[in-house]
Each structure stands twice: as C-alpha cells, then as structure tokens.
Design a protein that fits this description.
The structure holds two protein chains of two kinds.
Chain A (H helix, E strand, L loop, with lengths): L3 E12 L2 E13 L4 E5 L6 H9 L6 E6 L2 E2 L10 E4 L11 H12 L4 H15 L14 H13 L5 E5 L7 H18 L2 E6 L2 H7 L2 E6 L2 E6 L1 H6 L4 H6 L6 E8 L2 E3 L4 E3 L2 H7 L4 E6 L5 E3 L9 E11 L3 E7 L10 E6 L9 E5 L6 E4 L5 E3 L7 H4 L2
Parallel strand pairs in A: 3-8, 3-9, 6-7, 7-8
Antiparallel strand pairs in A: 1-2, 1-4, 4-5, 9-10, 11-12, 11-14, 12-13, 14-20, 15-19, 16-17, 16-19, 17-18, 20-21
Helix pairs in contact in A: 2-3, 2-4, 3-4
Chain B lengths: L1 H47 L3 H6 L14 H40 L6 H13 L2 H15 L2 H11 L10 H26 L2 H9 L4 H12 L1 H17 L2 H6 L10 H4 L5 E2 L2 E2 L1 H21 L1 H11 L2
Antiparallel strand pairs in B: 1-2
Helix pairs in contact in B: 1-13, 3-7, 3-10, 3-13, 4-7, 7-10, 8-9, 10-14
The chains are: A alpha+beta, B mainly alpha.
Subcellular location (chain B): Cell membrane; Membrane
Pfam families (chain B): BPD_transp_1
Membrane topology (chain B): Multi-pass membrane protein
C-alpha cells in the first residue's frame, strides 16, 4: 500500500498545428486508503488526469508516482490498478464470472481454483452471486454496474480509478450505490480516485475533493472546507446546490456598493479586502434570511420581492429581486425552511448576515475573505 | 340516418379503391422483378436436365418432359468437375481463412493499438485494394516460376502426404497469392467494424493486465464473430470465383490441378459444337459451394451487416 502522487502533471494534445493543454500542472497527493474525488465541469481535464494515472494517456510533463515508483513509463498492464468505466466496458461475450476472473487470469499466477474462490467471494460481497453465469446483455444497468465494480475489487489493486461510474444509473439507484460504494471503499481501504461532474457525489463520498477547471487544479480539500472556504469564485460557484449568490460591485471606503445597495463591511472584512477596487460578494442561499419585519441589523437588511417560490417540502427555494427596474434575472436565491410560507410577488425583508459573506476579487477571482465559522477548523476535516 | 349511411359508404369505397391500386402496383412490380431475376436460373436448371435434342426443340424456360428428361448431363459434368472441386476447395478454404484472419489482425493493429506511422501503413493497405490484378500478372508468374519456385519445392513433400498428390503443390502459390491480395480489403472491412466498437473494452482489458496479443485473442476475436461471417462469405466467393490468377499460375484446364473456374469454360465444348445441357449442369454444380457457404453463414452474415456499419 502506498500514496499516489501527481507531481506537476501536464497533458498536451496535439491537434495538427494546435496544441491543446488538457491538464495543466496538476499536483496532488492522494494518501494511502484515501477517497479523492476529482470534480469539475465537462472538458476540465479530470478524465484525462484519471487516464494518465491508468496509463491510457501518456504524460506530457511531470511525474506520477505510486509510493516511490515513478509510473510514467510503466505499461498500463503492469500498473497495479483497477478501473471502473462510465460505460462499464464489460466484455459482452463473457459471463459475469468470466468478466471478473479475466483480470486475475491475465495479471496473476493464481490457480483457477483460487481465482474461482475469489470471484465467488467478491460476488457474494456485491450481492451478485446468482448472476454470475449471465452475460452482460442479460443484466440490468444496476447489475452491470455491480459486475464492473466486482471486476475491479476482485483484482485487489493498489489504486481504484473510477470514471463517472454512477452517471448511467437512475437517480434512486445512484443514491443507493453512492452509499454502498462509500462503505465498500472504507471496508477495502484502497486508495481511490473518483471522477465525476456531479458535486453531490463529490460532497457525499469523498475524503477530499479536488476541483478542476480548464485543466487546472482549483482547490483540494475536505468537502466542508471547500464549501465554507472556497479559494476562488469557480469553487464557490461549483460546490453547493443551489449555488452561491454573487453580487458584483465596488468597494467604496469600507462599504460594498452596487447599483442597488450599499452594504457596510465590518473591520475584519474590510481588512481582508484591503484596497481591492472591484469585488464580488458571495453568500450561500441558506444564509440568506427572510424576515417579515426589520430586525436588529438594519445596515445588512434589504427590501426585496419574492419572484418565484419553489417548494421542495423540507425547504423552499425563494428567488428574490431588488426593487426598482426589473432586469428579468433574479438577484438572490434564498432557502427557507419548508413550513415558512412566502407568497410570490410578496415584499420581504432580507437579511444578509455579515459573518456569512465571502468576498472575491473580480479581476482574479481569488477569495479575499471567507465566511466566519463558529466551527472548530478541525471539525471540517471529519 | 340516410345521410350517415351514404357518408360511411363513400368513405369505405374510396379507401378500398386507393388501397387496392397501391397494393396491385406493388405486387405487379415484385412479380416482375422476381421473374426477371429467376428466369436465367430457371433456364439454367431446366437446360441442365434436358437431352441435347430437347434443348434444340423446346423453349429454354420450359421444363423437360418425357423423353427429353435426363440426369446424364449432371452426371457427366460432375465427373468432369470432381477433381477441380477438390482443387478449388483445397485452395480456396485455406486462402479465405488466411486472408480473413490476417485482415482482422491487421485491422486490430491499425485501429485499436496506437503506434507511430500507423497512417502510412493504412495507406499502403488502401493502395493494395486498388492495385489492378492485370498489372501484377507477369511479375507474379515470374516470381512463382523462376525466383521462388515454391510449387516444385513442395512437390516431393506433397507426394508423401495422404489425400493430396504431388501436382497439388501447384495450388500453394495460388493460395498464398490470394491470401496476400485478400488482406487489404479484409483489413478495411474489419477496420470499420473495429472503429465502431467502444475503445473502453480494449482499455479495460489493458487495465486487467492483458497483453496486446491476448486482448486480440480473448476479447477482440470473439467479439468480431459476426463480422467474420460477412468477410468470410465475401472472400470465399471472391477466391472461389477468381479466374485471372488461377489462369496465370496454373498452366491450363487440362492439368490435374486446374480449379473449377479454369475447367468450366471447357466443359461441354467439343468439335461438334457446344453441349448446352452439360455446360448448364457444370455451371449449376460449380455454383453450389458458394450457395452452401451463404446458407451456412446466413445468420452471421445478417448479424454482421446489422452491426458492421461497414
């Protein structure tokens, strides 16, 4: 067992004259037994990164190490890894049993009896014992998914690689598999790199998340750290559903000013912002508080109109607009508890608590200030 | 009441009328085409079963009657062709298997394995398809006769083998020639099939630790079974029916190693004219092996065409 290290890994695809940088200088260390989720929008280079770890793509620059061994020039066949594909990539002409035993037959010297034993054991762990003699075409999507996972597990590799393995399942099954996969990973304690574009999967399953965009690593950290202390606008927007609200404007003195509002900064925030001119203020929807009447923090309270209310049962998603000319786009999204009634076109008082705001530099997108947490920072690293 | 009945009457009538016209047109066309395509076959079979006299007296399409019917033509043709049948199959079956197998391997190497200079090789294969046979006939004959006389080298070995005679060694150069010239087209056919397969299959096998050759043997080869059906039928028909190479590499129709296509033009011809009954019998018999292949591989063929995309 060993750590998997990506050291300044770069991938450049050559397309005729053009050079396309798919992965740009990505460095991350995945500790032994850790579950790291690589997340980002499509085309951000996360799959390419995974394929470089697998050896399916060559590495243009940088180094990938497993323990102390440099993997760059090791053939895919000789890397001790197993991968689960989005399409499952089960061999259509082989039974589930043969699909699972194929890797052991090819990569180990185990006897057929030992192989059969291991396949049977993993199959019962995955709950597919009675499906072993069927071919992939006779299995449902969820069952194929289990066989594909079983095929990876039976190999007992140093590293699991998973390329959006749940995205072909329906929503209910996906949620089930999410929990199950997480338990399996804990149980097996195998270093896992999991690629997804779904931030829910990233938040719920990972020990740490690595957010990528445009081939660059944006931030690596435990899920809650990314949620509460995003280092830039991209991470702030990508993590969280519905995503963080952003108000762009200027800093004037120690206040934040947009066309509609003036929002005074406290000393702490003002110090963090320093002399940045154009800034963006971000606030999570659940931190936007809707009040019936003015509260005790008038400087941070605003009159707004609820334009659309989406009841979810446990909560309501309320779209809010500042008074004045309607721009057609809502200005803020708030989440209130499900029992609180807000009528559409109702005028409400909205409280934006100062301790919950994030401030970003408009030009660079870098975070200047993150929300204050009552939480002990250690608690973030659950 | 009366209004409604007359309405529905008109509706049904117009519907039936349209329906019939289209249907009748379709059937007439279908029957015409069936007749057009089947008439020569019918003529051939009927002529094969007629005596010489009946051929002269009756119209070609009519079946033989009474005195005019005979099995003699078929019997005679079979005697004439039996040796050639063996020669043709002895040459065509290994040649087909060889070119299909090598074609599939080449396509795998050119499609599913990545290496430098791949494109150059693909272009070479493409050129191979468009190489006119006539242009290579003379060099080919010189190669097999003077530079590398494989047939005479193998003759002593063939003499000691059971079933085959020493002269059968003359078929080996023809067999190898067919394999060589069949590879390009087989490669292209397999290539389009392999391109349609998901690349993750090969990647999964790689991650499972299988080598390039193992991936071919254990994954790609079994998956391409339907395509093998298609290419096998196509290639067998090509090689079995081929005349130009056979004519160049085998000395003539009177030699014992002559293949069916060489003998066929000579069967039934004599100084007194052409015996059409015998000739048709021979043609009919010569077509049987390809028909058997089509029937035997029909299921694979249909599957391959469906999934082939090529």
């Amino acid at each position: 067992m060993a750590d998997l290290t990506l050291d300044a890994v770069t991938k450049v695809f050559e397309d005729g004259e053009d050079e396309i940088v798919a992965v740009d200088d990505v460095s991350v260390e995945i500790r032994d037994g850790e579950f790291l989720v690589l997340v980002g929008p499509s085309g951000c280079g996360k799959s390419t990164t995974l394929r470089m770890i697998a050896g399916l793509e060559t590495i243009t620059d940088g180094e990938i190490r497993l323990g102390d061994d440099v993997l760059n020039d090791v053939r895919t066949q000789d890397r001790d890894i197993a991968m689960v594909f989005q399409s499952y990539a089960l061999y259509p002409h082989l039974s589930a049993r043969r699909n699972m035993s194929f890797g052991l037959e090819e990569s180990t010297d185990l006897s057929q009896t030992d192989i059969d034993e291991r396949v049977t054991e993993v199959a019962s762990m995955m709950g597919i014992s009675d499906l072993l003699d069927r071919k992939p075409g006779q299995l449902s999507g969820g069952q194929q998914q289990r066989v594909a996972l079983g095929r990876a597990i039976v190999r007992d590799p140093e590293v699991f690689l998973m390329d959006e393995p749940l995205s072909n399942l329906d929503a209910k099954l996906r949620a089930e598999m999410r929990t199950e996969l997480q338990q399996l990973q804990h149980q097996l304690d195998v270093t896992t790199v999991y690629v997804t574009h779904d931030q829910t999967e990233a938040m719920t399953m990972s020990d740490r998340i690595a957010v990528m965009n445009d081939g660059r690593l944006q931030q690596v950290g435990p899920p809650l750290e990314l949620y509460h202390e995003p280092t830039n606008l991209f991470v702030a927007e990508f993590i969280g559903e519905p995503s963080m609200n952003f108000l762009s404007g200027r800093r004037e003195g120690s206040s934040f000013v947009t066309d509609r509002i003036e929002y005074p900064f406290s000393e702490t925030v003002a110090d963090a912002v320093e002399d940045a001119e154009d800034v963006i203020v971000g606030i999570r929807p659940e931190d936007v508080a809707i009040r019936d009447e003015a509260g005790d923090d008038p400087a941070h309270e605003f009159e707004m109109t609820a334009t659309v209310v989406e009841p979810m049962g446990n909560e309501n998603v309320v779209h809010l607009e500042f008074p004045g000319e309607t721009t057609g786009t809502e200005d803020l999204v708030a989440i209130t508890e499900g029992m609180r009634e807000v009528g559409e076109n109702e005028s409400v008082t909205v409280h934006l608590p100062e301790e919950t705001i994030h401030v970003f530099d408009t030009a660079t997108g870098e975070a200047l200030h993150a929300r204050q947490l009552e939480l002990d920072p250690q608690a973030l690293r659950l | 009441m009366s209004q409604s009945t007359s309405d529905s009457g008109i509706d049904v009538a117009s519907f039936v009328e349209e329906f019939n016209l289209a249907r009748i047109g379709q059937y007439v066309l279908v029957i015409l085409f069936i007749g057009f395509f089947l008439a020569p076959l019918e003529t051939g079979i009927m002529t094969a079963l007629k005596t010489n006299e009946a051929v002269a007296r009756t119209i070609p399409l009519a079946p033989p009657t009474g005195e005019g019917f005979t099995w003699g033509n078929l019997q005679f043709a079979l005697e004439q062709l039996s040796g050639a049948f063996f020669n043709s199959l002895f040459m065509a079956i290994p040649a087909t298997i060889g070119s299909v197998l090598f074609g599939s391997m080449a396509a795998y190497g050119l499609t599913m394995v990545r290496w430098r200079g791949q494109m150059l090789f693909l272009i070479l294969f493409l050129i191979g398809i468009f190489l006119p046979y006539q242009a290579v006939l003379v060099p080919l004959a010189r190669f097999w006769n003077n530079i590398f006389p494989l047939a005479s080298m193998l003759a002593p070995t063939f003499e000691t083998l059971p079933v085959v005679q020493d002269f059968h060694s003359n078929l080996v150069p023809l067999m190898i020639t067919h394999i060589a010239y069949g590879i390009p087209i087989c490669t292209i056919l397999f290539r389009s099939y392999y391109q349609s397969l998901p690349s993750s299959l090969v990647e999964a096998a790689k991650i499972d630790g299988a080598s390039i050759s193992k991936i071919y043997r254990r994954i790609v080869l079994p998956i391409s079974k339907p395509m093998f059906g298609v290419v096998f039928i196509y290639q067998f028909t090509q090689i079995y029916n081929e005349f130009l190479f056979a004519f160049t590499l085998i000395t003539g129709s009177d030699t014992p190693e002559a293949v069916v296509t060489l003998i066929l033009p000579a069967v039934g011809a004599s100084t007194s004219g052409i015996d059409f009954g015998i000739r048709m019998s021979a043609a009919f018999l010569a077509a049987i092996p390809t028909l058997i292949i089509y029937v035997a591989f029909a299921e694979q063929f249909a599957k391959g065409l469906r999934t082939g995309g090529g």
